Amino acid sequence: MNTHTTVADVTDRIRARSAAARAAYLERLAAMAARTRGSDRMGCANVAHAVAAMPSSDKFKVVAERAPNIGIVNAYNDMLSAHQPLQHYPDLVKDEARHFGATAQVAGGVPAMCDGVTQGLPGMELSLFSRDVIAMATAVALTHDMFDAALMLGVCDKIVPGLLIGALHFGHLPTVFVPAGPMASGLSNSAKSKVREQAAQGLVGRKELMEAESAAYHAAGTCTFYGTANSNQMLLEAMGLHVPSTAFVTPGGPLREALTREAARTVLGYGTTLDGHAAKARGVVPPIGRLVDERAIVNAMVALLATGGSTNHLIHWVAVARSAGITIDWDDFAALSHVVPLLARVYPNGSADVNQFQAAGGTGYVIRELLDAGLMHEDVLTVRPGGIREYTHEPQLVDAALRWEATGASKDEAIVRPATAPFSPTGGLQLLQGPLGRSVIKVSSVPDDRHVIEAPARIFDSQEDLQKAFSAGELERDLVCVVRWQGPQANGMPELHKLTPPLAVLQGKGFKVALVTDGRMSGASGKVPAAIHLTPEAAAGGPLAKLRDGDVVRLDAPAGRLDVLVPEAEWAARPLATMPEALREANGLGLGRDLFAGMRRNAATAEEGAPTWL
Length: 614
Prior knowledge:
Elements: H1 5-17, H2 19-33, H3 38-41, H4 44-51, H5 56-63, E1 69-74, H6 89-99, E2 103-109, H7 115-118, H8 127-142, E3 149-153, H9 159-168, E4 175-178, H10 189-200, H11 206-216, H12 228-238, H13 254-267, E5 270-271, E6 280-281, H14 288-291, H15 294-306, H16 313-323, H17 330-337, H18 354-360, H19 362-372, E7 393-398, E8 401-406, E9 429-434, E10 437-442, E11 452-460, H20 463-471, E12 479-483, H21 488-491, H22 500-508, E13 513-517, E14 530-535, E15 552-556, E16 561-564, H23 568-573, H24 581-587, H25 597-602
Parallel strand pairs: 1-2, 1-3, 3-4, 11-12, 12-13, 13-14
Antiparallel strand pairs: 5-6, 7-8, 9-10, 10-14, 11-15, 15-16
Family: Belongs to the IlvD/Edd family.
Function: Catalyzes the dehydration of 6-phospho-D-gluconate to 2-dehydro-3-deoxy-6-phospho-D-gluconate.
Keywords: 4Fe-4S, Carbohydrate metabolism, Gluconate utilization, Iron, Iron-sulfur, Lyase, Metal-binding
């Protein structure tokens, strides 16, 4: 199948604009790869420190036998349900590595915070910046420079992008990502959301709400909605950075253990063939910096659009690409969105959870449909010698042996559909432009009759102010709620997920409602139209700071417009408001937020990926 013209054109445009930076990146990679092995290159005291705690047999392998040594970077903690299973993965990896004459060490751990815990709280202001902290912690771990390959153990929102950014700064190493999988299905996401809306209206109390939340989030594994964490896993599959179809296998069972062991074999250049033949040498795994090229980045973007994935990745994957010397922007996403069909309906884009998505065909089905339609590049490197086509197969255990079966037809076309009969002919994300700047909207979960909203603005300086106004009954009308001073430089760009229930209540009452903000919404943001990531942000002098109560705002997703219906001359002459001093002071103090002041000062724009390390 020939590559779709638009996909090819976007890829060529990215390649051209990235040529100088990518060439410099690959030159650095080649210089790092050309060095002798760490234990041969480093001084004896350095090596002795590095292997001091290893079993004697492993020390001998590293020093005398010059065996490969895998560096494990682990995001384990038992606060995050998704990362709790990772506790014992290093033991599995070490055991498997020894079967192939290799060794493995936990090179370091990275912090991993849960947005579900910090939503609506001050800690959420550290969330986006935690991605860069994780990238730096990954660099600290790998800087010991004793490793011939790496495994990245992590799953959730900022953790995978942070691990990937860090790994790409050590792009000379073969690297495989190792997930833990989703928790078993509990209370449905739609039922949970209904209780949240009832709580926002005061119809149920804390006891009922707590029971519902606990029934939804009840075990080890990722949350079962298709938010940022599970979007991460879809994108890693599309980039060929996992063992194939590893993303949505639940934790704790024999298949998950087999796939974790397979990750160790794969990064060493061994691996089980699709038809289940025993592990054997399958060739050298490409270093991650060569594997993640402009084609792999485009494949990830296409997979995001085809599944209606998290808007957070319009920030994260820009930063990921930059780490590999590649420059992408929201125009690239918009161009792809016009031709990439929506193939999946997973909550919040539908009623199914990720376990039902997996049962219906999952990542393998989506990737096959996109490849067959010419919407993904097939001529890409992956961590497997069979290339991206291996990722169209589903893993199974047959007589305790791992093998893969080709993904067949959709097992539920209410969840996944073929590219020839999609849910929508275009992708789930849309770029909006206008006098307020540039922003994005997730349209895949918004009802069609809400894709255009025109109403007076109500300006808020914080999400708490909006919630108070809702509770006071002040928002019972058509309106565009504007929440500003929420960008990276203002307060770290927190998610504003707590606004979803009250706005959904207003929409459910028949009012035309939209949100406009320079902040983020959760990857689980739902049915209320929201123009988010507005850039330039208000705190950096963006025109959002000109907006006043009563100004009529028009959000037109099909046209890609976000307009203010104020006479042009009046708009041009209107001064910018400034962030309230009390808000500015409160943003930077308490719960560790003062430690991140330098990151707020240095943060680039949302469209640039909001990196703090440029």
